[in-house]
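Re: the 206-residue chain
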Amino acid sequence: MLVVDDHELFRRGVIGTLRATDDFVVEGEAASAGEALRLVRLLLPELVLLDLGLPDRSGLDVVSEMHRDCPVSRLVVLTVNEDEAALLRALREGASGYILKGVAAEELVRALRAVAAGEGYVSPKMAAHLLHEMNKQRDEPGPLDALSEREREVLEGIARGRTNREIAEELHLTEKTVKHYVTNVLVKLQARNRVEAALTAQRARR
């Protein structure tokens, strides 16, 4: 795993949190976009935790370049930026997660575990923006028309950052049934992961 943040104290704190678990091996760290891009090409890490506020380049540009040059690495943004445009661009450029700084250590680890397992993650506060846009234009034609009412409910759970188990509890379904619905949603929206499913729906409803 590669951790990228120009604030050394914060970066060290994050690394300490990750090393306290048995889930992640931190292979490298960087304080600039240039060093981050060099290391991601060298190490090909499974995960990259990336701040958007880098001193030499926009972190959003780095997301795009990393995703293009190293698609095997899953990119997770960790930022103070609550701007919806930044969220949408990060996801479009290939990020699998968008986490706001200030998140509890346990939540950060949970989010990274989800992304490492092939899921997506968006901080609940930011996921609400996606859900709002999806609901705001519910009657307009688009990809969501192919979804059943139950699949829409599952998609809303995905947009709120819920796990399959949490969605199952909310909808009074089994986790296996929810997993089946999630698969259907991804196929119908031609999405690679949960975050992209929510993003695709939001974009289709603009």
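The mean pLDDT is 86.
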